[in-house]
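Justification of computing resources. Each target in the renewal requires a structure prediction run like the one illustrated here; the chain below, 85 residues long, is used simply to show the kind of job we budget for.
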Amino acid sequence: MTTQKLTDLLPLNRPRYNGKNDLGDRIREYRRVHGLSQKKLADLLAVDQTTLAAWERKEHQPTRRLLNMLISLVTSLPPSVSMLK
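Resulting structure tokens:
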């Protein structure tokens, strides 16, 4: 399976994320590919799990600061993060 970085999945040039390429879908897919639970990714971002869940359900969007943290985090992770589960 090919490993993808979240930066490859995020359409950062658009203020809103609509349709099949929604940010929430991309975060969920990134977690799935890398074997991260919502709780683990939320802990790594220093946000509550319910916040991350709301992003994935498209109820809320991360602030630019949190989006930048998310990008920094995933670009610093090794290709396999299964040891972080």
